Amino acid sequence: MDRIPILKMGPFLLVTIQVDMHDRLALMLQDDLTSRIADTGAKGVLIDISALEMVDSFIGRMIANIAGMARVLDAQTVVTGMQPAVAITLVELGLSLPGVRTALDVERGMALLRSFQDQPDEAAPPPRVDEGAGAGPDE
Amino acid sequence: MDRIPILKMGPFLLVTIQVDMHDRLALMLQDDLTSRIADTGAKGVLIDISALEMVDSFIGRMIANIAGMARVLDAQTVVTGMQPAVAITLVELGLSLPGVRTALDVERGMALLRSFQDQPDEAAPPPRVDEGAGAGPDE
Question: What is d(CA A87, CA A96) in angstroms, rounded to the nearest whole number?
Fold first, then answer.
């Protein structure tokens, strides 16, 4: 029981986080998930965190990292089931999860991933504005 | 983190077991799952046990109980992802999980549940032969 199972559902991968994440488990999940995306050619990753009642900066960064890795492997990430308290904590921690889409529950998350597949252009994350760079005339 | 999340996927419920089950957790899962079946009218329950590396008679009975409860609530149960060692242990423990269908992975399990929905007659579990009762002429 020292691995988080990754379930393949059609063209998507589903991960349910229900145990306390420690460093080793998080690293293994990142390894397993990136391998599975590469092996299966999955176009989307759905991470359900409805069992998480609290979150810290470690888990927040892990989710952001997974989304970043999935993106460079051409897969979208949707986080579902976030509890209100978790949303509050994430924002208070300054983790707004850039590039991660969210949905209220797994069904809506799957629908979101499917809509990304149908309209690949809309699936691309918004371009990151690099503050301070290219400020233009003021320089 | 003291509850196993139950994910609704269309007309089915998905449960991923990835932590050691103790009595209280198992009872809560039974409660939660039967409530969710009643609330949502789900026609199938998929239990993924790919994270279980070993199983004891407690977990075996819990799975059989859940399947029995789901059946009387008019929902089919499919267990997926059973590791070979777990299958060996279950049979050695004398737990053949009557009435529980199995599938190799979640995708096949979902396909099985969908096929039950399409052909409701085939979905019914085989009638249980009560050994010793109704033996007929010998009595």
Answer: 9
